[in-house]
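Q: What would this chain look like folded?
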Amino acid sequence: MNKPDLNLMVIFDAIMQEQSVSSAARRLSMTQPSVSNALARMRHVYKDPLFIKDGRGIKPTPFASSLWLQISSSLNIISDVVNPKKFVPYYAKRTFRIALTEGMLSLLWLELRKVIEQTAPQINIHAVPYTKNGESLLMEAQADLIADYVPDLGRYIQRQHLCTNYFVAIMSPQHPLVDKEFDIKALVDSDNLLVSLSGEASGIVDVKLAEQNLTRRIAMSTTSFVSAMSLIKQTSLISVLPYPIAFEHVKSGELIAKSMPIDIPPAEISMAWHNRSNRDVGLLWLRETISKIVKNKQELFKNGAWL
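A: My prediction, written as structure tokens:
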């Protein structure tokens, strides 16, 4: 583009963030045909489709993703200078997409909804499935925020520590091991239920057992913490899970938590977002809100909280 059209770039930025032409139009207070026409102009200029259909939505082409990385931060700076942003939660209309696992969803969603109902009634929160795809979710704007275990994803991604999840062995109150010492032999000899969000048939427990030339029987696996709780309550299966996820069930007496007989490193839970969102006051409000929710549950994240 010989003479970059800032208006087109603003429209392009909105489509990238919303992953929808109609949502971008609403965000910009434009008609959908106007946004579609602008997109057609950009496709002609760049000789690239920019967005392609993906199920019911659209996704950016590699060229569009690369272009956005180059312009998004500059657009945010220009916008802040020309029109300093204010975010008043009670009047704000916005949708945030948070990538997280089912376990973190169970810890955050109810409390987050309570906050929204009281202080930000027009804010929408949408969950995005999260496995090992954090970098692509943030780079391609499929999510605004990750709230889960996040490794170092490089210089474009910011992280903020939230809490530490310690692992425990979970079993039903009727399990034969409830009144016995839960040692490494008990762990190895038990029928284990593995919660594997990725579908892999082993986890960190198996890695640590292998270091001692030991293996356990994975009698069953599931991709859901909810189904795991139900299975454990009604069978002789045991499962190694983050204690905060099982807390409510342990507190009610429906499940029993035992300390692990081997050293399992805890899962460090963080929030992560793309650098382009560093000046996003709305996302800052969301991060602060989530931080407060976790802080109010801090007893769950202490080593030995189940004792």
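The CA atoms of residues 14 and 28 lie 8 Å apart.
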